[in-house]
């Protein structure tokens, strides 16, 4: 069965590499796709316990389900190295299934693009679950040709819930959103709790060989495949 699923994922990944825009597909559909849905995008190379903790924080804040979103075109992470996309999809599906959550695969990486692409797949207004470093990136003008229009579109389609990251706290989110260029979007931003041990965990640390806990299925995969050995 695992080989069949992996082959299906491989065909999907190959079809998304054709350059056609606006592709988004369910890998694992939760029991409900309406209501208060959290979207947790990332490169997941590999998935870590911090990703799982962020998803569970979304549940604790009142989300009905959380959907992990993997793109083949992640911003600032264009090179697909380390864990193949097909294996990331399989690992994420196993993680999401354990908590009754879902997984979506898409071919665009900007949050405004993801918000557009998942609209046919869910019923309701989604909330992106992000760390503090990601909200800083989302608001960074360098990623936009027309920042105000793009962010207006994003915040019309989704809310964003921000968790602490490293030393950044909820107070830093308030400060960030009080800046004149960001103030108009402040009412669409909320904060999430995240236990301190998870705030500094990262896929980067795992790839570098620095200890950073990962879910059991990911640990078994890393021990078997050693995708970061080189």
Please give a structural write-up:
- By secondary structure, the chain is an alpha/beta fold.
- The chain has a domain at 2-127 and 194-225: Rossmann fold.
- Helices cover 40% and strands 16% of the residues.
- The chain has ten helices and seven strands.
- The protein has helices at 2-16, 49-60, 85-98, 111-117, 132-138, 147-157, 170-177, 196-199, 203-207, 216-225; strands spanning 24-28, 37-42, 65-71, 102-106, 127-131, 159-163, 189-191.
- It has a seven-stranded mixed beta sheet, sandwiched between helices.
- Strand 6, helix 7 and strand 7 form a beta-alpha-beta unit.
- Helix 1 crosses helix 3 and helix 4 (111-117) packs across helix 6.
- The longest helix is centred in the N-terminal third of the chain and has 15 residues, at 2-16.
- The two termini are 30 Å apart.
- The mean pLDDT is 91.
List keywords for this structure.
Rossmann fold; 230 residues; 7-stranded mixed beta sheet; 40% helix; 7 strands; single chain; alpha/beta
List the helices and strands and how they pair.
Elements: H1 2-16, E1 24-28, E2 37-42, H2 49-60, E3 65-71, H3 85-98, E4 102-106, H4 111-117, E5 127-131, H5 132-138, H6 147-157, E6 159-163, H7 170-177, E7 189-191, H8 196-199, H9 203-207, H10 216-225
Parallel strand pairs: 2-3, 2-5, 3-4, 5-6, 6-7
Antiparallel strand pairs: 1-4
Helix pairs in contact: 1-3, 4-6
């Amino acid at each position: 069965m695992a080989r069949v699923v992996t082959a299906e994922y491989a065909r999907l990944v190959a079809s998304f590499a054709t350059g056609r825009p606006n592709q988004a597909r369910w890998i694992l559909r939760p029991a409900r796709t309406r209501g208060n849905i959290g979207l947790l995008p990332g490169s997941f190379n590999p998935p870590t316990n911090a990703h799982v903790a962020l998803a569970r924080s979304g549940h604790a804040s009142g989300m009905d389900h959380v959907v992990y979103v993997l793109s083949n075109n992640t911003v600032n992470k264009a090179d697909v190295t380390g864990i193949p996309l097909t294996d990331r999809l399989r690992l994420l599906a196993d993680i999401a299934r354990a908590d009754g959550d879902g997984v979506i695969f898409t071919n665009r990486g900007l949050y405004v693009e993801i918000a557009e692409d998942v609209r046919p797949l869910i019923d309701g207004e989604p909330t992106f679950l992000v760390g503090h470093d990601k909200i800083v990136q989302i608001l960074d003008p360098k990623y936009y040709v027309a920042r105000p229009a793009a962010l207006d579109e994003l915040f019309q389609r989704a809310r964003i819930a921000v968790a602490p990251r490293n030393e950044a706290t909820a107070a830093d989110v308030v400060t960030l959103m009080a800046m004149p260029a960001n103030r108009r979007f402040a009412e669409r931003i909320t904060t999430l709790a995240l236990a301190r041990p998870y705030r500094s965990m990262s896929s980067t640390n795992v790839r570098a060989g620095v200890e950073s806990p990962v879910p059991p299925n990911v640990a078994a995969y890393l021990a078997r495949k050693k995708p970061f050995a080189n």
